[in-house]
Amino acid sequence: MVLTAVKSVGNWGETGPHYPTQDIHLDKDLPTVDKLLRDRLHTVVYPEVKNYFFIDTEFDVFALFAIKYAMDSQKSLDIHHDQSFISASVKLNDDYEGGVLKFPRQRYDNSKIPVGDIILWPGDITHPHLCTELKTNEKHALTIWSKPCGKW
Questions:
Q1: Is the dihedral of CA 109, 112, 114, 117 positive or negative?
Q2: Alpha-carbon distance 55 to 15, whole Å?
């Protein structure tokens, strides 16, 4: 459903001078989908994240966007940290080659993660990551950044 919705928007804007990406920000372009996903994050995902990481502070989504890698535009993303408390990614399709989200320090990547599953990590310090070069088709993913409530 999310992939169909983001593809229907069609105005992938380039953002960020240091790490430019082809994005659709759901709060602006797909507010109904944005609300649905935020509600799911708050009721299902974030309570589990708090338990797993032993987080005693409340946190909230501050950026929820779809990202596209394509052969005629952005094909990869250099290693970087997110400006996020807890970051997350959801693979929206898998009919492409390359375009692997990799965490070199942790020796981990999302190549075996099924479409629709979410991966989460501490965004700002410990988990630098990159996206390898796309080889065929288009890759779409959902990116979620959070911040502690009352901060940032």
A1: negative
A2: 30
Give the residue carrying structure tokens 């409530």.
149
Reading across the β-sheet that carries 59-70, which strands appear in turn? 13-15, 21-25, 59-70, 138-148, 86-91, 118-122
C-alpha distance from residue 114 to each of 5, 30, 62, 119, 146 (Å): 19, 24, 25, 10, 23
56-109 residue pLDDT tens: 888 999 899 999 999 998 899 999 999 899 999 999 999 999 999 999 999 999
Neighbours of 47 (CB within 10 A): 11
Give the chain's domains with CATH numbers.
Answer: 21-148 (2.60.120.620)
Q: Give, as one character, the DSSP assignment of residue 150.
A: T
Task: Report the C-alpha gap between 123 and 50 in whole angstroms.
Answer: 14
* CA gap 29, 137 in Å, rounded: 24
Name the token pair of 54. Answer: 């032993």
CB 144 within 8 A of CB 49: no
- Number of Cβ within a 10 Å radius of residue 71: 13
